[in-house]
Design brief:
The chain is α/β, with parallel strands linked by helices. Among the domains are: 209 residues, Rossmann fold (3-Layer(aba) Sandwich), CATH 3.40.50; 68 residues; 76 residues, no CATH class. The strands form 5 sheets. The chain has a 7-stranded mixed β-sheet, sandwiched between helices. Strands 11-8-12 form a 3-stranded antiparallel β-sheet. The protein is globular and about 65 Å long. It starts with 23 loop residues before the first helix and ends in a 6-residue tail after the last helix.
């Protein structure tokens, strides 16, 4: 009899992560840019996260979209317990978390669950058995409403094939030890280093593994355990996923990784003409993946294809409002893509970013800020979103109503971090997303939300109290700072810098009152 975990790592919980590409605001904007209708975010909708882990993304969706009904499903009871605990702390009444395997989910009677407008599954498909893959896609096929959007992400063979033998070896090493999965990771990586240094030819004929192993060394062992030590780990080809989704009456419309919808930023220049020579979607996307040595896809599917009329799309784009995320640029505005870092034309990207930094703006307002064609501006704005500089805003009525739920979720995050947690995101109700915040920044926001006098000295004292509550302190060169005055000085300096960089961003995003 198979174990309940189906070979998936369950002896250590997954890290709490947030994925902007799975939020309704992002998916609806991507669909609009791709020329397709999306569910109306100003009206009530239902959202399902399949394999939600600790549920952080679903929690942000529930907090920032109070008119939505949000469901999270995961087979690991530890994940569901954690997600339910945060939801209860935040007082979110529009979200529910269900402990269920994909097999159980697929076999539920029709009346047992509602239909959904958005169904997302991030980091799941490549890490489960073929049987569970069928259950997952079948659930989407049965539960996604006509006109609904599905997001499916997975590892791609074109960029991950060289990891297959190494991943098998890592799994064998994990099975040979009695250590908990995350605790075994360090020893496994050390063994791989020893193998490489011993002259193993596999590394010589796969030189790209050098950078991958270096990057793995810097990642959370819990993440690596869930990424590489499961029984099932199979990169996939786009055509196979698209064919399976087609059987569920869902058709591919584009990527939630926005830069990958632009040929010039998704494949080498010499490959782009090859894409233009074919209208076959399966072939085109496979050529794209081979051209870019794609290792991970974030596909968007739609149940039923009714492309927008040209006038409808233009009207939707004109109504699109973007806000600044707080990410700054150096002398040049750069965007990381699968092909590497690209640099935007200074005369176009710099004034667009400066306009966004001055406040949220519609696409026509941003177009008026530069002397370029509307098409050039729209592509630049798409890449600014892809690069993390800009984010679409929710409809104004939704963003205004999302304040209370987002505030209570953020207070729950701050309380957890004050107790020793490490959640590095805060819900941004105006945008319908979460913004990166380091530990100190979350504690500063928490103190401001709680009414701590806004002098830097008072904030520093409160932040130090919250750090101490979680058994932490300020560090210098890896050592705890024991002198109270030195600690206050360090925290005060950090707070001053954070407020200068981030206070207006937090206000514009709705994290703090304007």
């Amino acid at each position: 009899m198979a174990r309940w975990d189906d070979g998936y790592v369950t002896d250590t919980v997954y890290t709490s992560q947030f994925h902007r590409e799975t939020t309704p605001a992002w998916l609806a904007t991507a669909a609009l840019l791709l020329g397709h209708h999306a569910p109306d975010l100003s009206r009530p909708f239902r959202y399902a996260d399949l394999g939600c882990g600790n549920g952080f993304t679903a929690l942000v969706v529930a907090a920032t979209c109070p008119h939505a009904e949000v469901w999270g499903f995961d087979f690991n009871p530890a994940h569901i317990e954690s997600a339910r605990s945060i939801a209860a702390r935040a007082g979110l009444a529009n979200i529910r978390f269900i402990e269920s395997s994909f097999g159980e989910l697929a076999s539920r009677p029709e009346a047992a669950l509602p239909d959904f407008d958005f169904m997302v599954t991030h980091g799941v498909l490549s890490w489960i058995s073929p049987e569970n893959q069928r259950h997952l896609i079948d659930t989407i096929g049965r539960r996604l409403r006509p006109g609904g959007l599905a997001y499916v992400s997975y590892n791609v063979t074109t960029g991950m094939a060289n990891m297959l033998p190494l991943r098998t070896l890592m799994r064998m090493m994990a099975e040979a030890t009695t250590d908990r999965s995350d605790l075994a990771v360090g020893g496994i990586l050390t063994q791989l280093d020893r193998l490489k240094q011993a002259g193993a030819a596999f590394f010589q004929v796969n030189p790209a593994l050098e950078n991958r192993l270096r990057d793995m060394r810097a990642q959370d062992p819990r993440y690596l355990a869930h990424e590489f030590l499961n029984r099932d780990w199979r990169p996939m080809m786009f055509a196979d996923v698209a064919d399976a989704m087609a059987e569920a009456k869902c058709r591919f419309i584009g990527s939630a990784t926005l830069a990958e919808n632009i040929d010039a930023t998704s494949v080498p220049a010499g490959v782009a003409p090859l894409l233009g020579e074919t209208r076959d979607q399966r072939l085109r996307e496979t050529l794209r993946d081979i051209g870019a040595a794609q290792s991970f896809r974030r596909d968007i599917y739609r149940r039923g294809i009714t492309p927008t009329l040209v006038a409808e799309q233009h009207a939707g784009i004109d109504a699109l409002t973007l806000g600044w995320t707080g990410l700054t640029a150096g002398e040049q505005v750069t965007i990381n893509t699968g092909l590497g870092t690209i640099t935007g034309k200074a005369e176009l990207y710099r004034p667009l970013l400066e306009r966004l930094q001055a406040g949220a703006a519609t696409v026509p307002q941003l177009t008026g800020a530069v002397q370029h064609t509307a098409a050039e501006v729209l592509q630049a704005l798409t890449l600014l979103m892809a690069g993390g500089y800009a984010h679409p805003l929710l409809p104004a009525s939704v963003g205004q109503a999302a304040g209370p739920g987002s505030r209570t979720l953020n207070q729950a995050i701050v309380a957890m971090n004050s107790g020793g947690g490490d959640l590095s995101m805060l819900a941004a109700p105006i945008m319908g997303t979460a913004l990166n915040c380091d530990l100190l920044e979350t504690l500063v926001v928490g103190a401001l939300m709680d009414g701590t006098p806004q002098t830097v000295g008072d904030l520093a004292q409160e932040v130090l109290r919250r750090l101490a509550r979680g058994g932490r302190s300020m560090q210098r060169d890896g050592q705890a700072v024991t002198d109270p005055q030195e600690a206050v000085g360090m925290v005060s300096g950090a707070i001053t810098g954070a407020l200068e960089r981030r206070l207006q961003v937090w206000r514009n995003a709705g994290i703090l009152p304007g």
